[in-house]
Specification:
One of its GO terms (cellular component) is cytosol. The protein has 282 residues and is of the alpha/beta class. It contains 9 helices and 12 strands. The strands form 2 sheets. It has a 6-stranded mixed sheet with strand order 2-1-3-5-6-4. Strand 5 and strand 6 form a beta hairpin. The structure holds NADPH dihydro-nicotinamide-adenine-dinucleotide phosphate.
């Protein structure tokens, strides 16, 4: 496996080593499934990306994850794209099939799998805070699931509008933009609220800019932040009777989907979540 943004080959053989959370989780999952596979963590500078992708193909890698800054640049180096990856214009997972490299985006699919454990977004009123890479992946998958409405709330108008245009034009989703101005009050009709910003990353006291009183019992509230998993938003939401989803579920599920695509084997999400918690010491 190739995770292309990090430092060097950190694991070639033997026990999993603590290279990064995804590598640690994958190696544990390979072991649990009885697969003698390896997930390597490799840093590739942008100017070497084409060489690295050609090398992946030549060396018969089954696939890999691509992280920032390669998620968009890798598109033109691949032979084909999944429909969702083509709509998003970003790839985080590549697999090799019949000598061709195919690009997929598992971030949004991983989120949707988590969300569906609580509710199906079809015919629901969904609000997403953020318009960056994570929001884009989630919004496209939610949009494809036919929500009743899809509101993108973002601090920067231009970035928010770009996402709304993509959702309307490429996904056919009923998307609208709200530019963040102070704390956002969730409409009473909101069924699902997702924080897809980086607010809360590494800070368990960081507040998401929403009116806490607009979190209502029964609402599903999700956060993409996985460290710490219990953000202020999720704590406030649980205290107000909402059903909550943490970012660890999304991280595990996108890895489950990658594992399945590469190996054809169903991994154990419990083993993967446990490995993540162990790695992150949470
Ligand atoms: P980006 O940098 O692409 O986007 C960040 C978003 O957060 C933008 O919409 C930005 O708004 C918004 N934002 C950041 N700070 C603030 C603030 N103080 N107030 C209002 N809005 C703010 O990041 P990504 O989308 O790639 O990642 C976002 C988070 O998602 C990261 O923390 C990442 O770790 C997490 N993530 C989790 C995954 C998982 O599996 N759980 C998977 C992928 C990502 P603006 O446009 O105005 O700058």
């Amino acid at each position: 496996m190739l995770e292309s943004h990090l430092q060097q080959i950190t694991c070639c053989m033997g026990q999993p080593v603590a290279g990064n959370p995804t590598q640690y989780m994958m190696e544990k999952a390979f072991q649990a499934a009885g697969l003698e596979w390896r997930y390597l963590t490799l840093e590739v500078p942008p100017e070497k990306l084409a060489d690295a992708v050609a090398g992946m193909k030549a060396m018969g890698f089954c696939g890999g994850n691509f992280t920032i800054p390669h998620k968009v640049a890798v598109l033109e180096l691949l032979d084909d794209l999944s429909p969702a990856a083509a709509k998003m214009g970003a790839v985080n997972c590549v697999y090799q099939k019949d000598g061709k490299l195919i690009g997929e985006n598992t971030d949004g699919k991983g989120f949707l799998e988590s969300l569906r454990s609580l509710t199906d977004p079809a015919d629901k009123h969904v609000v997403i805070l953020g318009a960056g890479g994570a929001a884009r992946a989630i919004a496209v998958e939610v949009g494809l699931a036919k929500p009743a409405s899809l509101t993108i709330v973002n601090r920067t108008a231009g970035r928010g509008q770009e996402l709304v245009d993509l959702l309307r034009e490429k996904v056919g989703a009923p998307a609208e933009l709200v530019v963040l101005d102070g704390d956002y009050e969730l409409p009473e009709t909101t069924d699902v609220f997702i924080n897809a910003t980086s607010i809360g990353l590494g800070d368990d006291e960081a507040r998401t800019p929403i009116v806490v009183d607009s979190l209502r019992p029964g609402m599903v509230v999700a956060d993409v932040i996985f460290n710490p998993p219990q953000t202020v938003l999720l704590r406030d939401a649980a205290a107000r009777g909402c059903r909550t989803l943490d970012g660890l579920g999304m991280l595990v599920n996108q890895a489950v989907i990658g594992f399945r695509i590469w190996t054809g084997v169903e991994p154990s999400p419990a083993v993967m979540r446990e490995a993540l918690e162990e790695y992150l010491e949470i």
